[in-house]
Design a protein that fits this description.
Blueprint: E1 17-21, H1 26-37, E2 41-46, H2 49-61, E3 65-70, H3 76-90, E4 95-98, H4 113-142, E5 144-149, H5 161-181, E6 186-193, H6 209-215, H7 227-238, E7 249-252
Parallel strand pairs: 1-2, 1-4, 2-3, 4-5, 5-6, 6-7
Helix pairs in contact: 1-7, 3-4, 4-5
Bound molecules: ligand LGGBLMCM and NADPH dihydro-nicotinamide-adenine-dinucleotide phosphate.
NADPH dihydro-nicotinamide-adenine-dinucleotide phosphate (NDP) binds at residues 21-22, 24-28, 45-48, 51, 72-74, 99-102, 122, 126, 149, 151, 193, 195-196, 198-201, 203.
Length: 281
């Protein structure tokens, strides 16, 4: 077992280099810690140097190998440079976790042109920029694995029209690029988290937090997901255990996306809510 109580073999990613975009906080940081604990050399990127510095310190403190690069994934040239940096420092990239992203809750009719563009540029174009640059610089010749982080937008995404559209597009890109790049030995998958308790949620306006707390219980586990639960799925899809999986999107949402308002009757549970084993002391 690794320091993070992982069920995976401690040397699973020995000699592998992993890039986690948005690895300075939340899900990305948890994933970066997990890959580092399993033997990988991890690169993390984001827009904020201080956030990255704190993450590097945390991973070094756990004995992991990590490098950070300031990079806005919306900037194509910066993303190409990021791939060059990985090449200069580590020689190759094996795994890309496309996690950087964000949005703000707002009714569709109020979203400004710049607000719409910022969210599409970040979550769709930025995600594509990183995949394309990783393929051209690294994966084309030696193969690799990509896991994109999207969201639960299967029934539309009220108050999140911009990100719902962008994430649905990335779901489709995942399938398209799995087809185009399979012959190069590249697997492309995605995870679709439901509502996960991360530091990212705290960036939202306090006025919408009660709504998020309530929505976080609308699933079969009757609670929000944890960072560890998403990281475990990212690790699995990036690992050789998923060698026969490509073009797939794994929903990590406690059943939120299939939640039926009429069941259970009167909201009664037979068993207590599922616990996250990783979070138990
Ligand atoms: C039911 C809830 C389900 C929750 C499931 C999902 C959860 C998560 O994803 S957790 C959190 C992930 N982290 C974040 O979302 C935080 C990071 N967010 C962002 O960085 C921004 O949302 C961003 C994508 C817009 C960042 O772009 P950036 O270019 O840095 O942003 P600017 O500040 O320059 O703004 C550009 C544009 O967007 C408008 N805008 C930004 N925030 C809001 C807001 N809260 N409400 C309305 N409009 C917003 C901003 O005003 C700018 O437009 P103009 O005003 O027209 O210039
Ligand atoms: N928490 C949840 O319930 C859910 C989260 N998600 C998605 O999971 C991912 C991680 O979210 P979470 O950990 O919760 O939130 P965080 O806000 O903690 O993580 C987002 C990370 O992305 C980085 N980032 C944002 N924009 C850019 C950019 N343009 N270029 C480079 N890096 C960027 C941020 O760093 P910086 O600001 O320094 O650039 C930050 O480290 C996001 O894509 C999020 O939308 C999806 C479904 C549910």
């Amino acid at each position: 077992m690794s320091a993070l109580n992982s069920i995976f073999s401690p040397a699973l990613f020995k000699d592998k280099n992993v890039l986690v975009t948005g690895g300075g906080s939340g899900l990305g940081l948890r994933a970066a810690r997990e890959f580092a604990a399993l033997g990988a050399t991890v690169f993390i990127c984001g827009r904020t140097q201080e956030k990255l510095d704190r993450a590097v310190k945390a991973i070094h403190g756990e004995g992991g190998r990590v490098e950070s690069v300031v990079c806005d994934i919306r900037d194509r040239d910066a993303v190409v440079e990021l791939m060059q940096t990985v090449s200069d420092q580590a020689g190759k990239l094996d795994i890309l976790i496309n996690n950087a992203g964000g949005q703000f809750p707002a009714p569709a009719e109020t979203i400004s042109a710049k607000g719409w563009q910022a969210v599409i540029d970040t979550n769709l174009t930025g995600t594509f920029n990183v995949m394309q640059a990783a393929f051209n610089k690294h994966f084309r010749k030696k193969g690799g694995a990509v896991v994109n982080v999207i969201a639960d937008m299967w029934q539309g995404f009220p108050m999140m029209a911009h990100t719902g559209a962008a994430r649905a597009a990335v779901d489709n890109l995942t399938k398209t690029l799995a087809n185009e790049w399979g012959r190069h030995g590249v697997r492309v998958n995605a995870v679709a988290p439901g509502i996960i308790r991360t530091s990212g949620l705290e960036t939202y306006d306090p006025a919408v937090r009660p709504m998020i707390e309530e929505a976080g219980k609308q699933n079969q586990a009757a609670r929000m997901g944890t960072e560890a639960e998403v990281a475990a799925a990212l690790v699995f899809l990036a690992s050789p255990a998923a060698a026969y999986i490509t073009g797939a999107t794994l929903r990590i949402d406690g059943g939120q996306s299939i939640f039926h308002p009429l069941y259970p009757p009167n909201g009664e549970r037979v068993w207590p809510a599922f616990d996250d084993e990783n979070e138990k002391p």
